[in-house]
Amino acid sequence: xxxxxxxxxxxxxxxxxxxxxxxxxELTKKxxxxxxxxxxxxxxxxxxxxxxxxxxxxxxxxxxxxGNHENFDMLGAYPVEIxxxxxxxxxxxxxxxxxxxxxxxIEGKTFFTFGGATSIDKYLRTEGISWWPQEVPSFxxxxxxxxxxxxxxxxxxxxxxxxxxxxxxxxPPLRERGVKMETFPENRMLxxxxxxxxxxxxxxxxxxxxxxxxENKTVLYQKIVALDR
Length: 229
Prior knowledge:
Blueprint: E1 2-5, H1 15-23, E2 32-36, H2 48-56, E3 61-65, H3 72-75, E4 80-83, E5 86-92, E6 95-98, E7 102-106, E8 109-114, H4 139-151, E9 155-161, H5 185-196, E10 198-204, E11 211-214, E12 217-219, E13 224-226
Parallel strand pairs: 1-2, 2-3, 3-6, 8-9, 9-10, 10-12
Antiparallel strand pairs: 1-13, 4-5, 5-6, 7-8, 11-12
């Protein structure tokens, strides 16, 4: 089975996964939970072993795209492997980072992944310690994504990102947050994906809210959604 949810921030928003696991004792490591960015389990050497062990004890396999709250120096130090057709970092056998600009084939469905986002609070943090420039996707990663999508005739079942395209910022519930929604490079990159790719459903996190923007575009935070097979 396939499920998807929003940000987990290491241990901070981990409880939803634990509750879900307790409610679904039938799940095994052959089932997958996708986190739409801000996994946060690879953050600092201090406490990382404890955090990752919590995810490893979950009955399902955890897949995640990166958000802006990741330690990209540590994440990038893992060797790049090919898994289900795309590039990954295997943090553990059952914890896998789905890299940017990849198309994966999982349980008969295709997934395009493109993590990353701009930290609006980075002025309060320290570069290389609590935020990293690699949080913003590069044009090389976008080009790789475009090339990979062409191999699938620009058609996938699902898109999983951390941020969203520019148009999405104008839809409720994002528009109704009462917070000025700035446009960043990743929003413009994802607008290109929106304009050129046919997809069944697009899920993203980042905005700490749950809601359907359209019939096939959803922002997630605490909610866990079962994906059709």
